[in-house]
Amino acid sequence: MSEKQIDLSLGRDEQNKVLTDSVEGVDGLLAKFYGRFPWPWLPVKFDYLEDPYFETYAVNQDVGDYKHKTLPAQAEIWVAGCGTNQAIHTALRFQKSSIVGSDISQKSLDICAKNSRDIGLSNLSLREESINKATYREQFDYVICTGVIHHNAEPKLSLERLAGALKPGGIMEIMVYNRYHRLVTSAFQKAIRIFGENRGRIDFELDLAIARKIASSLPLKELLEKGFIQYMDWSESDFADLLIQPVEHSFTVESLESMADDCGLEFLYPCISLYAKYLATNSWNLDFQDTDLQREYDSLADTRRWQVTNLLLHERSPLLWFYLQRKDSPNRRESESRICDEFLNTVFEEARTNQRSYIRDKDNKYNLSPISVSYPTVQPDDSIRDIYGLVDGVTSMRDIFEQLGLEPTFQRVNRARIGLATSAFPYCRAVGYAY
Predict the structure, then answer these.
(1) Does 366 fall in a domain?
(2) Measured in whole angstroms, how far is the alpha carbon of residue 91 from the centre of its chain?
(3) pLDDT value at position 233?
(4) Is the pTM of this model over 0.70?
(5) Is 396 a member of any domain?
(6) CA triplet 247, 30, 93: central angle to 5 degrees?
(7) What are the beta bridge partners of residue 320?
(8) What's the pLDDT score for residue 41?
(9) pLDDT value of residue 15
(10) Helix, strand, or coil here: 301?
(11) DSSP string for 86-143
């Protein structure tokens, strides 16, 4: 997009699409924006687990695969829109896999490359490229794209490229903005665009200065907390990414599913990220006091049930963070109720390893700490700790429920499944299928 052409007639809705004139134009804007405001933040440390397959087991269990076959031990993984550090986190999580990290911002990639060298990663390659021009075809077992396509001119085009890169039996992890979380930020961004429309050019420095003045004049904390965003003492890049983003789309469960369907993809299950695991609203399933209402709600197809949750919880609904797969995948998609049955029929053992960390020093260099800690580092939630206490590597989960006198309702079993045997809460591993 020419910096002298800002058409405010475009995208006049609750989303910030004012500057979306073309895919190439928005790619250029984003490269400029993230060149000035590299994101995300520079972490205090990068962690890794001594068991190199620990995370692979956990991701397989995220998608209800207790035989650990979906994601192979030595996977090909694409982190699409990796920013300054997500590719590093991924390379450390999946140490036996090959990771490609790509981003449109060379500045972000330079930061990522420098930190990767500090750590000594050998399984990561970085590429400056737009998702919208990527030509990968059926190359990756796992595609990770979180917080990216909602900033593109045409998110559907971006998702089509991601889908094309996925192997037939691969899985995708996608996060896009929840419409009900972004009403305030999108409105703020559009207001910034109006302040700048008479300039005849886009100037992020001036946008930032205006945004800071507005933020100091308004009850920003109260406005943001009406949605999902916690007010904090942001860095400059955090502040800019939140409030002066040039383009911001957002979705509901329904619109995301529709877009995925158009791209030849289908929903698998929600992904609870490490970022969101301790948030009060990280579950897509509601509890009702009325038993008939609960029964009717539980009987809904998964995505319809999640749509209801999205609508009823509105700004307090969870992040739109999901696993997807190709509709022609050889791995048949099971309902969430069905994978709960499989969870009950599975024998689990306690999953333990040690965690090591690369710590950032005063010169922003990462050095390996001599200290290791037992992982997981905290105990399961009190509500499921009795179940965890009977996990012994020989007793099925169904028998454990019977021993405790627990009725295996869908909601109770699903809470146990998520809280004990997923990437966010990796306390239990299905036995008998070691790599």
Answers:
(1) yes
(2) 16
(3) 66
(4) yes
(5) yes
(6) 105
(7) 176
(8) 79
(9) 87
(10) coil
(11) HHHHHHHHSTTSEEEEEES-HHHHHHHHHHHHHHT-SSEEEEE--GGG----S-EEEE
Contact 170, 142 (CB under 8 A): yes
Task: Provide the terminal-to-terminal Cα distance of the chain, rounded to the nearest Å.
Answer: 50
Using DSSP bridges, classify how beta strands 76-80 and 124-128 pair: parallel, antiparallel or unpaired. Answer: unpaired
In a domain, 159, yes or no: no
The answer to whether residue 223 sits within a structural domain is no
Scored b (16 or more CB within 10 A) or e, 213-223 reads eebeeeebeeb
Question: Which residues neighbour 430 within 8 Å (Cβ) at sequence distance 6 or greater?
Answer: 57, 61, 66, 67, 68, 346, 347, 348, 421
Strand runs labelled E in 271-425: 320-326, 348-350, 353-360, 366-368, 373-375
Phi, then psi, of 266 in degrees rounded to 5: -135, 150
Measured N-to-C along each axis, helices 291-298 and 302-313 cross at an angle, to the nearest 10 degrees, of 120
Question: Structural domain tally of the chain?
Answer: 1
Name the residue range of residue 358's domain: 348-428
CA atoms of 83 and 128, how far apart (whole Å): 11
Phi, psi of 174 (to 5 degrees): -130, 140
Q: How many whole angstroms separate alpha carbon 347 and alpha carbon 383? A: 20
| Strands 348-350 vs 428-430: parallel, antiparallel or unpaired | antiparallel
Alpha carbon 123 to chain centroid, angstroms: 22
How many CB atoms are closer than 10 A to CB 209?
Answer: 12
Of 278, 406, 272, 401, the residue nearest 344 (C-alpha)? 401
What is the length of the chain?
435
- Residues of the chain with pLDDT below 50 are 1-12
Q: How many CA atoms lie within 13 A of 315 on its CB side?
A: 13
